[in-house]
Each structure stands twice: as structure tokens, then as C-alpha cells.
Amino acid sequence: MAYDNSMDTLQGWPNGVSIVKTYERQFTNQSNHTAFPYVPDSQSFLNLNLTAKPTFFGCYSSNLTDLMKEVGTDTVPPLVVYVANRPFTFDSNTSTFKMSYDNEEKLSLIENGFAVSTRKNLTLDDEYRACIGCAILQRSRERLGMPLGSQCQKCFDEYCWDGSLDTDVSHNINFTEDGMTNDSDTTNASSGTSSLLSSKNSFVNTWGVIIGIFVICMIGF
């Protein structure tokens, strides 16, 4: 799983640039022929709601053969479950320059992290835990030539990136309560974080302050 807690947008939320850079790194010498599945550009991450709910990348290894040839490897890239920080119960886009938190803030951050990781305690999708299981077992299933099954097919239809792009920079994308986005000008980001980010130079506005991305390669057992 890849948890993205970056502060990339002016409102202090991720836009996928961390995982985009991970994808691009495989085409450099430092990758050592380690492949990573296709991902869209950061603008598409926002416009397609890919930061509003979990997104699976590299769902089907049959779609990755050209990528493996380009990288120069026989090892199938992992299926990556991408989960971006977003506000469900608390504005968790706090600045890394904030050095102290009271107990209420600490508990609120943990509660929101739980909501992000569990699709709001499964209230947005009570089958999400089954979908995580499908992602974990997918590479093993493919190696064994086993059929996908109706449950996993349903999960992949819901969460797998379909390869589409939307690079329209005129979109105003913000979170809504149920985890999707809309075109309003409002945001759930805290004003303090927005002010901090808007005062930084263009490099920081582009990259944000990356406070964590942890990738577990789901290659099966």
C-alpha cells in the first residue's frame, strides 16, 4: 500500500506527484531495473478523483508487458493500492512546521487516518476489506492461472485505474463528505495550512512537504 500524506496543492492535500515520481524513477539508472506500474499525471489524479478514494494501480499484469520490456526486467511490477490523505473527520493536512499537538488534535489525526484507511469504517463501501484481499492475492492468482471471481471483478471495476487521463487545469477539485469531489471553490483545508503553502516558492508549491509515502509491494505469497 502507498499512503500519500504530501502537501502538494495550495490547500495542503496530495495530488499524486509522489507516486508519479516513483513511477518515473524506474526509467533512471537508480531504479536497477525495478518496475513500477503505470500511473497518471498529477492533474489527472485530482480531476479523476484518484485522491478522494483508494485507487489500485497495475491490476492486471497482462497490461504491463511493454513496461517490463522498457525497464528491462522479467519481474512483474506490484499491484499498488494508493491511499491519499483527505479530510473525513478532521483537517489532517497539518504543516510539518507545527511542532506540538494537544491530545484532542492527536486523537483527531488518528481517527481521520483510520477513516481514510478503512473507507470511513466501511460505511462508504462495506466490501472494501474484501477488495484489499483481492489486491493482495492478485499476483498469486495470475501466476496460478486462476479465474478472478465475481467479488474481485467487482472490486477491480470500482478501484482499478482504467488508464484514462484528464489534464484540464481549469478544474476546481475539492473533497466532499462522502469521499468524492466537486467543482466548488470551497475546501476543507485549514486556512493556516493554505496560507503557509501560498507563501512558499514554486518548488514547495509543486512538491509540497512530503510527510510520508510507504509502499508495500503486493506480489502475493
From TrEMBL:
It is an enzyme of class 3 (hydrolase). Residues 1-166 form the PLA2c domain. One of its GO terms (biological process) is glycerophospholipid catabolic process. The keyword Lipid metabolism applies. Keywords: Glycoprotein, Hydrolase, Lipid degradation, Lipid metabolism, Membrane, Signal, Transmembrane, Transmembrane helix. SUPFAM superfamilies: FabD/lysophospholipase-like (SSF52151). One of its GO terms (molecular function) is phospholipase A2 activity. Its EC number is 3.1.1.5. The chain crosses the membrane at residues 203-220. Belongs to the lysophospholipase family. This is Lysophospholipase.
